[in-house]
């Protein structure tokens, strides 16, 4: 079993994050480094693509901050007291009621929130990803339970160990004293469990706002809230804890680099035709939208080549394409898998279709 200190050292060595481990079960002063920032940006893009089969995305506002407290840990309903949110709610609820289907509104805001259960960020503020579902009260509970399942599965698909995610009920300490809503039917937290503790990934709350202009409104709200930096850190810890050695098992769609190119040539001088073939393959891969490691590997010694590929495993790169001297004649390449270290032979004419199938 890997210790938290070992995991943080692996991530720090490969420029994903830095931090100080305390008592073996806390990480303080966490800051994302170059590769960690790239990973976080990919997670953000995946979140932007989230939709649901029972709702419709109406618009995305990237500069909304309508919360006061830490929704993960203190109050899940503090945003109801914000005047800006009241206008936002009335507009969204009115449109959902008029169109007769749930409306999903998304926002990305910066707030002063840096403490998690396991992770404490170095920065005093972090990005909060909010998804607000405006829907009829009559279907609220059904959709609330459905959203819990959908969101848990979403996190499981991004993880190297899907079984670590679970849903935990949350009792809001302010539920009795709040006067802007009738009640909160339920509030839950999607969490990730590690050997050294657990971390909150997402808070989901069902609320019934009541404002002067919406008395007896048949509309209610389900809010999903994610601390982007803390969730990113948890996924990075997951990628190392569940892997062997120094390997980082990042999700293939979130990895900063998705493919590396390695060329095994003869002699000290690299053949120009082999260089051109490498560049051509790189062009093919980038054309289908994959992120290629910007440092191509060239070696004349097979053992040295494998050593270089092991380093790409430590960067979480899911696949590497091996090009050999005979590739110029046969058109055959080898596609190496990070997690198994095994390589399969494919023809250059199939590389585009094959990789597209893997990453989509």
TrEMBL record:
GO cellular component, one term: mitochondrion
GO BP annotations, alphabetical order: mitochondrial DNA replication
InterPro entries xref list: aa-tRNA-synth_II/BPL/LPL, Anticodon-bd, Anticodon-bd_dom_sf, Gly-tRNA_synthase/POLG2
Domain annotation Anticodon-binding: ranges: 258-355
Domain of life: Eukaryota
Record Pfam families: HGTP_anticodon
Name recorded for this polypeptide: Anticodon-binding domain-containing protein
Organism of provenance: Glossina austeni (Savannah tsetse fly)
